[in-house]
């Protein structure tokens, strides 16, 4: 048994021996000692050459096979370490000017009599005699002189010389094609296989297939093996379309009736050992480096296995890609696992002691009945490979093999040996180290379900983390630079986007505060209050008007000189007081202007200080990028701030203010003096004049009081100020519309930044998407797509909103109703455009506004909905700032979001992701990946994935499903058994699926009988 299972090996299925009439060297004769020496030399050449299996294809005879078979059982014969199959090379009668060779290969266990019977069933075309030594001589003697002369023979010589006649017969004889096909068919137990040369010497390709369609098609149908050295032809026979064969692939496959054929290249060696000359090839010397490789046991059953799936089991060329990969990455392939009981152990039970299993580098299937030790082996492989999934171990856990105190696991040591690198050794009671590198990726079924279900429920973001890790592994080093993880890369790449969005949201906050202020001013109560204040002011004016002094005419009687001087002076004083009053008013306005300028200068100073700090932070943020680019900040940015102008301006304003204040003080003193003088002068006037002056003064005071009531537009409590506020409120509806339009533009700009952020993230998995595009299985069948979308959650949005607003009216009455209202609006939009983003924000704002209006008779804004100490601007900032949208990764499978798949399908999808997309090269250990999947899904989904994945890494899986073990054509089967009666012994037996013993184990264990193998029926025996 080949315990490592099916492996890639060179097979040379076309060699000759000294029994062949065309042999470059000493041929067999009558001397047995000489013949034995030749066979011993032949065995040495077979053993020394690279191929593991050969087929003897001597012309017309099995004598070479019989001689080898006889010699091998004789005393003193050298040991043959390779596999040799008997075969024969013939020439068929064919509708062509050249010769058509044909081969047949036989089981190495076939009885000699069956080979002799085969020869007897072959009919020579010219004589209709069964093929034999005598019949070939007779064939030559029956041939015409012209035919013999063409091949270098004389008719007379042939008639008299048996040896010459035999050679001539070998060169010109032809077998009837129907007898050839019938003779193969009649070999018992399928122990013979037709083997036609195609594009090699004297091959079937030389026949005009269109002209002789039935003849060619007949040989196509009867020949499971063809010989060629052309890679595109090899692929076409296997059923693989290539760039080189795509023009004729369809017709070619139609001729084969869609049944793949095994195509090989033989050395056609006519000597034991070559000398480097392509025309003098020895065993294993394949022409032009076109070596034949089969991934199978070097047995007849192994060859039959290769016939079933030649595309997977054969290769034509210097070395199969998987072997090249293994050779370049030996540290990623497990060679074998060993488990021993410690020397100090006191256990009487054997358990796993003495376990040693060589592991195949392709697909390994661990099978066995329940409780037989399948998961035990998976857990131990994962432990020794330092997998961090020990929480999902099903055998190496406290209530099983480790017990409460680690027994009996503590008494066993496992060793994992690699094709290169240090072995991994641990006791089975140890835990994987978080400090060591994970060398084996363990994916138990529990891990699948936890990842997928928790992602859908939102419990964790572990699934997305898995996505991020794989995406990061595909990001080119030129892009990731010093980033050690996907999160670090995102932080480096997206801080600019976040800064831009933050600045826009600052502007949005200021605008929303203005909008809320306008909405508050548009409250009906505000307008009612203003109207009431205006009415009161008008009432005041009416009342004030009613007490207006009646103007008194200036007396006309003549005044004395002193009175005239006093009257004139009083007029001057009145004018002076009016000017002082005007000056005081102007001084107040000037001081207000100075105050505004002083405040502006202080703000400028503070903003400059803030800007300097922000600039310092900015320089610190780009320091790493500047250093990486070999630049200094001064090379790009020079910040110059001259604060000296500010103190000068402040001082000048302060001086002006002081001067105005001092002048005001002086004017107040002057006014007091003038008022005193005015009083004295008034007393010098006669009584009419005094009354007149008193009347003038009363009118002035009345007018001043009226002016105070009427006020100005800058005095908010005056009549004009109140009317100005009413006028402003009249303009507010237009103003709020403009501001809301501005807000919408900011939302559009924020969305644009988020869209850029999303696109930047999407660019990170462009290499991964390219990989998918290159893999037709993922691209066309599974339609696997990575997407970065701006996503949000209606539930999260509702939670945020309802933390600030009350749910007691309209659509927002009650928890369920409120959530439904938000959710229904959210589901209207895909958030793939700014129109969607602004549409949703405005929809939610309308929902809130309408509900608020119902709560307070169409009061503008949403303040009536707000909870205590919550501000409407906060809600607007959240809604229009798109704080609920962020770039998210998701995975689509056959155009379906992962959230919409069943748990089993999500697990399968994750498996596809790990096996085909994950860039890691570590071995993967799978524990029942078919769990929760029906057979149809297993066949259509998992099987192609496993077949594709094993091309590039080692896969070890525990399974009880025959579709996975058999249809995936597992290269190695490990059969686990547990003998509880004989020392609690867990045993493992391994081999290939074509091995008879393992084949029976597969049938017995994997859920059923040979019927379970359905279309792969030929795989069991």
From TrEMBL:
Keyword Coiled coil: yes
Organism encoding this protein: Bosea lathyri
Superkingdom to which the source organism belongs: Bacteria
InterPro entries: P-loop_NTPase, Pol/histidinol_Pase-like, TrlF_ATPase
Record has Ribonucleoprotein as a keyword: no
Upper lineage: Bacteria, Pseudomonadati, Pseudomonadota, Alphaproteobacteria, Hyphomicrobiales
Family matches, as SUPFAM superfamilies: P-loop containing nucleoside triphosphate hydrolases, PHP domain-like
Protein name listed in UniProt: Uncharacterized protein
Keywords recorded for this protein, A-Z: Coiled coil
Coiled coil spans: 570-597
